[in-house]
Amino acid sequence: MAPWLPLLLASCLSWVARPASGSSNPPLAVNITWSSINFKTILEWQPKPVDYVYTVEIAGKRSNWKKTCIYTKGTECDVTNLVQDVNDTYTAHIFSEVATEDEIGVEELPYSNSEPFTPYKQTIIGKPGIKSFQYNTDHTKLHVVIEDPSTPYKLPSGTLKTIREIFKDDLKYTIYYWRASSTGRKQESTNTNEIEIHVDKGENYCFYAQATIPSRKELRNSQESQIVCTGHEGNSFNDYGIGMLVAIGIAAVVIILLIVALSVTLYKCRKLKNEEKAKENKSLNYI
């Protein structure tokens, strides 16, 4: 064998293995997290791309891979519509690729894997609402109706599904309540959206609701609802909470400002009229 042949072969192999200019792989996505409230699900990651883009691909154990947020320069992606089978467990790939026409889709792209995500077990349950409440005739019981949080998913009728329509019997509510003049807190639970609590006649009460998913080991409890307080007669202004009081306050301020503005306008009009009358009288005196 000629002595120069091994050197020539090594040189050729070195040239073939050398990457083309500008074709180095961009950074991979890190800190990938699933952020989900009431089944509205956002995939988030880092870092913010510079001179490259991301593409997200998702699949469940019972579903095929689907791409979304293709060639995005952001660091989050709404994947709600790709995880509608809430009992399935999903995994995401986040591809990193250089944003040039010559390289997109040319070769196997580097990607990062997310942790598995099961919406039924991991979405955070948001604040329930207090739909209505009413005392009985002798003011010894308070009947409370709780409103389920809505989800992004729709029923065939076009209305949004509530968490009750997804969790069904695996959802219960707890009402935490206390006398307005006391700090001692009591609680009552129900498997439905209605609950009746025993109260002391003539006392004011404050309360809030919280949902629980008993089958879960983690993230069992929802966010707490707004605190609502009753009036002595029931269904008074206090029943509508802080939001209603703020609205009433704003309305009162607007009315006061309108009254002040109207008073100032009438005063100026009267003053102008008096000045004109004074001028007329002055002119008559000269005559």
UniProtKB/TrEMBL annotation:
Chain ranges of the Fibronectin type-III domain: 8-100
Membrane topology: Single-pass type I membrane protein
Annotated Interferon/interleukin receptor domain residues: 123-231
Main subcellular location: membrane
Signal sequence coordinates: 1-22
Cellular component terms per the entry's GO annotation: plasma membrane
One example of a Gene Ontology biological process annotation: blood coagulation
InterPro entries referenced in this protein's UniProt entry, alphabetically: FN3_dom, FN3_sf, Ig-like_fold, Interferon/interleukin_rcp_dom, Tissue_factor, Type-II_Cytokine-TF_Rcpt
Keywords assigned by UniProt, alphabetized: Blood coagulation, Disulfide bond, Glycoprotein, Hemostasis, Lipoprotein, Membrane, Palmitate, Signal, Transmembrane, Transmembrane helix
Summary of the function given for this chain in its UniProt record: Initiates blood coagulation by forming a complex with circulating factor VII or VIIa. The [TF:VIIa] complex activates factors IX or X by specific limited proteolysis. TF plays a role in normal hemostasis by initiating the cell-surface assembly and propagation of the coagulation protease cascade.
Name listed for the protein in its UniProt record: Tissue factor
Source organism: Geotrypetes seraphini
Name of the gene encoding the protein in the UniProt record: F3
